[in-house]
Amino acid sequence: MLWWCRRESQHCRQQQQQQEQQQQQQQQQQQQQQQQQQQQQQQQQQQQQQQQQQQPQGAGGDDDGINSLMDAVVGCLHGLMSLAAHARAVGLQREAADLVGVLQRVPATSLHALLRRIFLRLLCLLAGDGGAATPAVASVLACRYGSVLVDLLEAARSASEALFDACATEIEHLLPTPQVCRLMAAQANTPGGAEVLEGLNRRQLAHVLGLVMRSAPSWERVQGAQVAVPAVATRCYLAVQT
């Protein structure tokens, strides 16, 4: 009887040990799975960071927050310019001048940065690289950006020649950059004029380039950079001259 009790006791201990070993193995497997998941999450985060670092800066390749902020700012400017145009149409020249005069009180550095971002976002939207929900939304946004950019340049020219030169130079210096070359090439290779809004957007871009490229010497400086954009921009420039 004593022998049987000992045997049963040993058997119970063996079962307990086996259960403990199984539990330990399960815990180890769970820990390994958790470590693998953590490693995968870290790899995904690293890939996202690398993709963000590789995105072009300042051209609609910005994050969604900056694009949304720019869209809101341009929407306000579009409303301001529309009010000024309506005031001029009904003979309220002084009120129209007061509305446009708000822009003249913006610090030069802030105004130049705003012009650069508007121009780059316009090109991104026209090239289908602006992060818009649909092509139709991109066309509407591009139309608003182009209209505001033309109005800003015209307002600067009416204010003073020095202010206009400074604003135009900010855009002119962007033309030889690789990012603008790519966006302009994408825009030039897209057939335009098939739809009213697309045709308007292309004419607005041509109008902007026509304002910026005011003289042959300044344009020759851009051509001297030996990049692909001069031929693309020249096509738009010639389009606005006809």
Describe the protein's topology.
Elements: H1 2-54, H2 64-89, H3 93-104, H4 108-126, H5 135-159, H6 161-172, H7 178-188, H8 196-212, H9 216-223, H10 229-241
Helix pairs in contact: 2-3, 2-5, 3-5, 4-5, 4-6, 4-7, 5-6, 5-8, 7-10, 8-10
Describe the structure.
With 242 residues, this protein is mainly α. Helix 3 (93-104) crosses helix 5 (135-159) and helix 4 crosses helix 6. The protein has helices spanning 2-54, 64-89, 93-104, 108-126, 135-159, 161-172, 178-188, 196-212, 216-223, 229-241. The chain is built from 10 helices and no strands. The longest helix has 53 residues, at 2-54. Mean pLDDT is 71; it is low at 54-62, 215-230 and 235-242. The protein has one domain (64-241). The protein is 81% helix and 0% strand. Residues 16-43 are annotated as: Disordered.
Low-confidence stretches: 54-62, 215-230, 235-242
Task: Let me know the largest β-sheet.
Answer: none
Overall pLDDT, averaged? Answer: 71
- How many distinct domains? 1
User: What level of helicity do the residues show?
Assistant: over 70%
Descriptive labels:
mainly alpha, 242 residues, disordered C terminus, Mediator/Homeobox_domain
Quick description:
The chain has 242 residues and is mainly alpha-helical.
